[in-house]
């Protein structure tokens, strides 16, 4: 659309200035008079019963103002969503290394450390469960809360299970010319937001209430958790989200614990209480992307037609459910990939272990299954001597197709276009020929080999059938004719504040610089559900558009009154309103007239997502109202002497609908691909008997500027009818296909298919991992780190 | 102990513990919170500052080592009118900023590079910021911003 003034035009991020000047204040940057510092005492064992906790000595230490345990919270601080199984501080058991047991607030570091040492915790060790494959065997230790069943099976270790059913794959295998049967594994991934967890709680006079500044995913969830576990009324809690230094899904449950702990400590001490995690504490205690074991059986015809897909996945949720029931549901829904099958059956079991705990991470369960299914489909293409893009084009979902869930797709689907564009952009056909297919038997060690690989993705939009899906935005014209915009959805770097500002400006026909968007604050914004699942642009964008349209209608009424004409006779020219006699009235004049008419110049708009439905019993339904599609190509250079993989080129084409904030959407794409590159090649969270092996960036390696190639991004802007100005989401799907594209490129280069992430030197070089036994030293040391 | 040093062109004379790191000295004592703590082991670069013009991780340096020397933090980088300088403006215009937590360190790494190499290649820019981790951007727009600033400064150099 060429008549748009702001949407799709080059724009600067609304909060970039304060970030480049260093004046943007993140939670840890607040220093208040009389402020106390705080920290948790955390479990140094993976599984134990708590016999007793004695804090009396710690409380006597000079400078210590408050020491709390689970007993200081209502119902021991029990919380969690969708499954309630966590505590603000451990109750009865510790279930992973890093589980918080007690929290201390003190005037200075010396008193704080002395108090943490003086807390006496008596623990009775319990056997740990570290292998998710063993979680359901009769002799497995019981980690979950439900008891064993009559046969002695650890019923409590099965958190939840899901299915998808479409016909019966067993009836189809005999029609297939090729049946691939493979197991793939992915590891935990650390979010590695550069800002660690931080919360600052400020008590109100006489501890009548509390204001918390914290870098959490959802201020509203944080507030509800405080209300329920600390026992304050809704009007007595305010949660404000300052600038957030990255989240990627990682600032949910761990942050809600931290927020409730600091709120309680502040209320007891009557002083502001700040808690900031060290990197070690962050890596040990925060949740990760879940690790998955995935078994695929996929059948195809000689001509490349995919026939049937059977999947069984085991998800390691670790010690708590957190949001893993939802990520695993997303894994289940996306396990078959963006392809048509005649039959499909998916089974996912989510189990408890004592390996830390897992939760939300950008990609949200799709990252794992996309890795595995895109490797499987790629292998089928190679075995059938077909071009991997041709095979995908032959089978990919197209407009009007029905998915394996029984959902009929709309005309927004553009995966074929994405595949064709990425093929052209990456010069795929020429490079496929030029980089001769690797054969392990014929490669001379030390030879440098090039390869190119592809992966496709579909990603259900927003929450899907996980829950009710709506968002609210508000607008207000201030006395100086600037506008204040709020949304219940937050921006931890993704750029949604800019997107919402542009949508409001476009809808109202005013300059974006007039609009100031408030930071998320439970006192000024309206709960819009969590900012997860790449839902900000579509949900929050639509809500912003609805509220802006309402305000626009009020102003048009005022302009019609001013011009003594009908609303339909009014035109706009920039910010000006033009009446039937072509007399212009400025925005300010129309606003002043609206005030004189006594009109209220504030609006609120809600947008409800279209209905979804899912039958957990039959494994069919309409899981998401729509899907994002995309395709990415990676080019690699593999040193066959060392196993070193360099990603030398990268192309991503995504079906995003209308692009609203061009520079922002590219940033999301580049950043997502970079996280996927790390997941593919270097990021590694090992648990050894429950002890995490990497506790800081010296061992947990994330990509630097030298590890990332120049990335070429393009967007298929097929307008999406349910999106604001036709826009779809981008945040998660940009990351999801990166790892399989890279691993498929390594296969092209070397002939070696790496089925376990990450593809480190030894897996690339000799096809197996040489990692030795781990140790618990770093982890224990990390818990002492300040 | 008593610390005497120049921070952002301003003489500082203050007392702090002898074993305090430069990072915590800047943040806790001078309240210069633009310098961020990301790892405290010198891996992430969020705490980057210039010490006598050289890029250092302030978490790895004792404040005592900076005694008598010149420190420049992000608060000391700006145009004459206090607004963004050309590099900071380029970060804004090229979309180099997402969450912003690594950005003060990135700007200082960029300044340190451009002080020693006015005509860097993209590979040289990538190498110069390899000690600064960013989890949001994938670095590409940061490289764009530094490269664009280098070209502008070269042009300006030719004109002057």
Automatic annotation (TrEMBL), chain B:
<dbReference type="GO" id="GO:0016491">
    <property type="term" value="F:oxidoreductase activity"/>
</dbReference>
<keyword id="KW-0479">Metal-binding</keyword>
<dbReference type="InterPro" id="IPR012675">
    <property type="entry name" value="Beta-grasp_dom_sf"/>
</dbReference>
<dbReference type="InterPro" id="IPR036884">
    <property type="entry name" value="2Fe-2S-bd_dom_sf"/>
</dbReference>
<keyword id="KW-0408">Iron</keyword>
<dbReference type="InterPro" id="IPR001041">
    <property type="entry name" value="2Fe-2S_ferredoxin-type"/>
</dbReference>
<dbReference type="InterPro" id="IPR036010">
    <property type="entry name" value="2Fe-2S_ferredoxin-like_sf"/>
</dbReference>
<keyword id="KW-0001">2Fe-2S</keyword>
<keyword id="KW-0411">Iron-sulfur</keyword>
<feature type="domain" description="2Fe-2S ferredoxin-type">
    <location>
        <begin position="1"/>
        <end position="77"/>
    </location>
</feature>
<keyword id="KW-0560">Oxidoreductase</keyword>
<dbReference type="Pfam" id="PF00111">
    <property type="entry name" value="Fer2"/>
</dbReference>
<dbReference type="Pfam" id="PF01799">
    <property type="entry name" value="Fer2_2"/>
</dbReference>
<dbReference type="GO" id="GO:0051537">
    <property type="term" value="F:2 iron, 2 sulfur cluster binding"/>
</dbReference>
<dbReference type="InterPro" id="IPR002888">
    <property type="entry name" value="2Fe-2S-bd"/>
</dbReference>
<protein>
    <submittedName>
        <fullName>(2Fe-2S)-binding protein</fullName>
    </submittedName>
</protein>
<dbReference type="InterPro" id="IPR006058">
    <property type="entry name" value="2Fe2S_fd_BS"/>
</dbReference>
<dbReference type="InterPro" id="IPR051452">
    <property type="entry name" value="Diverse_Oxidoreductases"/>
</dbReference>
<dbReference type="GO" id="GO:0046872">
    <property type="term" value="F:metal ion binding"/>
</dbReference>
């Amino acid at each position: 659309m060429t008549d748009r003034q702001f949407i799709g035009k080059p724009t600067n991020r609304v909060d970039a200035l304060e970030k480049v000047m260093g004046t943007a204040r993140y939670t840890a940057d607040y220093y208040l008079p009389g402020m106390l510092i705080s920290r948790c005492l955390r479990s140094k064992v993976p599984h134990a019963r708590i016999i007793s906790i004695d804090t009396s000595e710690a409380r006597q230490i000079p400078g210590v103002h408050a020491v709390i345990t689970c007993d200081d919270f209502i119902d021991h601080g029990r919380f969690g969503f969708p499954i309630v199984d966590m505590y603000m501080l451990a109750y009865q058991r510790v279930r992973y290394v890093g589980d918080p047991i007690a929290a201390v607030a003190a005037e200075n570091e010396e008193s704080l450390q002395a108090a943490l040492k003086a807390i006496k915790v008596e623990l009775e060790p319990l056997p740990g469960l570290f292998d998710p494959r063993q979680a359901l065997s009769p002799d497995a230790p019981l980690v979950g809360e439900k008891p064993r069943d009559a046969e002695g099976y650890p019923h409590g270790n099965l958190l939840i299970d899901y299915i998808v059913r479409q016909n019966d794959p067993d009836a189809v295998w005999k029609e297939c010319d090729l049946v691939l049967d493979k197991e793939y594994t992915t590891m935990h991934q650390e979010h590695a937001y550069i800002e660690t967890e931080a919360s600052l709680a400020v008590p109100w006079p006489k501890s009548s209430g509390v204001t918390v500044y914290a870098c959490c995913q959802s201020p509203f969830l944080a507030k509800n958790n405080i209300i329920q576990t600390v026992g304050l009324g809704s009007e007595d809690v305010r949660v404000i989200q300052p600038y957030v230094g990255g989240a990627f899904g990682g600032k949910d449950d761990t942050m809600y614990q931290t927020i409730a702990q600091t709120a309680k400590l502040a209320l007891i001490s009557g002083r502001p209480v700040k808690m900031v995690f060290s990197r070690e504490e962050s890596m040990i205690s925060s949740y990760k992307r879940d690790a998955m074991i995935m078994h695929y059986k996929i059948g195809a015809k000689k001509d490349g037609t995919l026939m049937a897909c059977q999947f069984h996945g085991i998800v390691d949720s670790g010690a708590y459910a957190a949001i893993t029931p939802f990520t695993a549901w997303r894994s289940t829904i996306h396990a078959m990939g963006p392809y048509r099958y005649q039959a499909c059956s998916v089974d996912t079991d989510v189990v408890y272990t004592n390996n830390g705990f897992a939760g939300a991470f950008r990609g949200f369960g799709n990252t794992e299954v996309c890795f595995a299914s895109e490797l499987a489909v790629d292998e089928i293409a190679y075995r059938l001597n077909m071009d991997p893009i041709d095979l995908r084009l032959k089978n990919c979902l197209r407009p009007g197709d029905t998915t394996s869930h029984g959902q009929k797709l709309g005309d927004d689907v553009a995966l074929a276009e994405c595949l064709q564009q990425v093929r052209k952009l990456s010069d795929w056909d020429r490079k496929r020929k030029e980089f001769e297919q690797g054969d392990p038997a014929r490669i001379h060690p030390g030879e440098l080999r090039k390869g190119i690989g592809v992966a496709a993705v579909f990603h259900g939009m927003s929450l899907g059938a996980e829950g009710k899906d709506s968002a609210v935005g508000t607008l207000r014209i201030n006395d100086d004719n600037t506008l204040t915009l709020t949304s219940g959805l937050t921006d931890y770097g993704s750029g949604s504040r800019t997107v919402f500002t542009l949508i409001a400006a476009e809808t109202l026909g005013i300059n974006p610089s007039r609009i100031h968007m408030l930071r998320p604050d439970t006192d000024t914004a309206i709960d819009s559900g969590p900012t997860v699942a790449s839902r900000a642009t579509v949900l929050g964008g639509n809500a912003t558009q609805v509220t802006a349209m309402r305000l626009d209608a009020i102003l048009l009424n005022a302009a019609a009154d001013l011009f003594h004409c009908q609303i339909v006779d009014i035109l706009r020219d920039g910010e000006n309103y033009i009446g039937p006699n072509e007399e212009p009235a400025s925005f300010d004049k129309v606003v002043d007239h609206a005030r004189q008419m006594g009109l209220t110049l504030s609006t609120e708009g809600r947008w409800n997502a279209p209905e979804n439905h899912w039958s957990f019993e039959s494994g069919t339904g309409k899981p998401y109202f729509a899907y994002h599609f995309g395709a990415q190509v990676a080019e690699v250079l593999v040193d066959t002497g060392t196993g070193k993989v360099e990603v030398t080129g990268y192309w991503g084409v995504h079906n995003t609908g209308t692009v609203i904030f061009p520079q922002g959407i590219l940033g999301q794409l580049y950043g997502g691909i970079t996280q996927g590159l790390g997941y593919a090649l270097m990021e590694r969270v090992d648990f050894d008997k429950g002890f995490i092996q990497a506790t800081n960036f010296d061992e947990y390696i994330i990509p630097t500027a030298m590890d990332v190639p120049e990335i070429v991004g393009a967007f298929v802007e097929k307008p999406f009818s349910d999106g604001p100005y036709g826009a779809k989401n981008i945040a998660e799907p940009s990351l999801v296909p990166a790892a399989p594209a890279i691993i498929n490129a390594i296969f092209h280069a070397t002939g070696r298919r790496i089925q376990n992430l990450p593809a480190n030197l030894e897996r690339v070089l000799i096809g197996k991992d040489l990692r030795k036994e781990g140790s618990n030293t770093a982890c224990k040391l990390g818990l002492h780190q300040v | 102990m008593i610390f005497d040093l120049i921070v952002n062109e301003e003489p500082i004379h203050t007392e702090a513990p002898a074993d305090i790191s430069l990072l915590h000295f800047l943040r806790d004592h001078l309240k210069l919170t633009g310098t961020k703590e990301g790892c405290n082991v010198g891996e992430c670069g969020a705490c980057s500052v210039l010490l006598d013009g050289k890029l250092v991780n302030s978490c790895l340096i004792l404040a005592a080592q900076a005694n008598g020397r010149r420190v420049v933090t992000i608060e000391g980088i700006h145009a004459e009118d206090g607004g963004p300088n050309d590099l900071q403006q380029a970060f804004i215009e090229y979309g180099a900023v997402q969450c912003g937590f690594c950005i003060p360190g990135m700007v200082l790494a960029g300044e340190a590079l451009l002080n020693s190499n006015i005509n860097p290649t993209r590979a040289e820019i990538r190498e110069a910021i390899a000690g600064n981790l960013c989890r949001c951007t994938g670095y590409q727009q940061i490289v764009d911003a530094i490269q664009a600033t280098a070209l502008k400064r070269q042009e300006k150099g030719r004109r002057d």
